[in-house]
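User: I'm curious what two different proteins look like when written out as structure tokens. Can you demonstrate?

Assistant: Sure. I'll show them one after the other, since each token string lines up with its own sequence. Here's the first protein:
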Amino acid sequence: ILGVLAGLCVPLQTSINTKLGGYTKSPILASFYSFLIGTIVLIVINLIMNPQKLTPSFMMNQEYSYVWFTGGLLGVIFLTVNLLLLPRIGAALTVVMTVSGQIIMGIIIDQFGLFNADVHTINLGRIFGVMIMLMGILLMNYKKKSARIITTKSQHTNYWMILGIFTGCLPPIQTAINSALRYEVQSFYLSALISFAIGTIALFVLSLVLVRRISFSLTHPEQGKIKPIYFIGGALGVVFVTTNILLMPELGAALTLMVVIFGQMLMGLLIDHFGLFNTPIFKVTSRRLIGAILVFVGIVILKLF
């Protein structure tokens, strides 16, 4: 249930960051400010929960391995590649390809216990659950070719789709690495802070190199003056990342991913159906509803096996 609630945060964060993007005029810059707010929130949480871990003496006594830096960078790579995929293969295919990559990598991490994760051996029941879930995701996201919104025509669609699968492999690796960091620093709050801080630094550099500024406008011709709510995307990201770090040792990589994805799909349906955040209204159809049920059934099967 906690994983589903964390998943609900992702479409909300995306919608809010999209609004912020209207003022920054750059999705990368909007992501930088989202990560920056998340980092500030996590600093406050760490100062309250475990202030002793932010002291120079604690930091000086640590052995800095790759887990300190890789998690945050993988999150930024996933975000950046998605920005490339969306205009070339459309939103629906981007979701299907990246989610497929996430589930595949989640199973691999479970099977071999990569990044010090607990081993959850694959079997026919787990494979069947994954297949049912993928079928549900396809039903929820399928659009006829004529209805797909693709802003950049590409002659290499298949290669972009393959890139989407490889990109989808990054979030489960990020979660596994952040979970390993949790045990290294003995705090999932500090683990989340380190991941966010590294991501913020990487996005700051990307903003300077690609966008060549970090300033944004306080007004928008259609949206009016900027509202404080447009900056809470980072806080929602904190809930998502911290919950993933907490859940992975309990549920395993594949099941954690599946329940979180289910939450994302549910909130996506609600946003589409009611046109939340002034988005276009797309009523929930029987096909998408059946897809959501199949995703849930796949999760139940995976939990049983």
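Here's a second, unrelated protein for contrast:
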Amino acid sequence: MTMRHIIFHIDVNSAYLSWTAIEYLKRGEEDLRGIPCIIGGDKKSRHGVVLAKSIPAKAYGVRTGEPVVSAFRKCPMLRLEPPDHKMYARYSKRLMELLKSYTPDIEQLSIDECFLDFTGIAHRFSTPIDAAFEIKNRIREELGFTVNIGISTNKLLAKMASDFQKPDRVHTLFPEEIRDKMWPLDISELYMAGRASVEVLRKLEIRTIGELARSDPDYLEIHLKSHGRLLWEFANGRGDDIVKAVGEEAKGIGNSTTLSEDAKTEEEAKKVLLMLAQSVGRRLRKAGKKAGSITVEIRYATFRNVSHQMQVTPSAQSDTILYQRACELFGELWDGTPIRLLGIRASRLEEESAPQQMNLFDYLEEVRETKNERKQDQKHRKLDRALDEIRKKFGDDAVMRAAFLKKQEKKEEKDPQDQG
């Protein structure tokens, strides 16, 4: 009997605060994790947002992402420490080195979380739970901070499991446990269920993950488009079980830009995403590749980085499709904080001539795809290639999207030197 696929999701508990606390303990100071404390903002002006919080701060209602000023209203005796991203990178590197002593099959999601494919090393341990406790305890004893480890058969469920009770815990969420452990949770607890989606679902009287799982996916799609079906699949525990190691992920094609002025509105951000999607799409077509996955990265004005990834089914190289997927990810990711940098990365690349490999989710998408949609995709491809040729001959600015043209016209109207 072959063992089923087992994946760990490893997440550092309040990473920025934990790592800062360790540095202070080295100096003989008190443990910041044991007092009301936050990381973020400016110490003198108290501007910025909360990047991380201690458990005592959480008891006062302090939330990650809220303005520092608001946090101090809730807890006047709060201690504020500034972020140190170079130090965080050092601790993250030590964590990954420890994990790689077990297996190279690690997909790092961010500075403080990753997936680990346990399947290949399962024979070395009595159970996955025993292995998770060994890893968790080694991290605490050797590196000085705690993690949560979620265990399941795919990445979605492993990530959901690691978000259960914290800190310093190991949780399982196997398919047979979904009904008891995941379905009773509020809909806002589901991965990728952002504020906007949650509002729509609650208007539809869907309040728990279980109610979402039992809903009609076609009905959800009417209200939330493709994201509605994605959330339905997640609510039913369906997710990717392929852990992409660093080497494979590095084969992607991406582009990012630091903005001259922070983007403060969705409209401003989406214009940048459109520009980036065009750039990435053009490079994909030049390389003869299609993307099976897309990632959107945001760096806030506070220098906090966040990113989300989603599957592109079927694989694509069209500017339009890349832009649409990027906007979906952005809508679920952005918390309203001014944006300093935006990036799009296409990964899981395959040859554009390669036949489409289909899993269950791909099949569901294919069944729903109409002839009209396929014709539309062909039009996108022809248009993209025509635009590529024009830009190749006459330069990148030879053809401009209407969104950028309107922006330029407004700028010219405001500039008195351009008025005749």
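A detail about the second structure: The longest strand covers residues 339-351.
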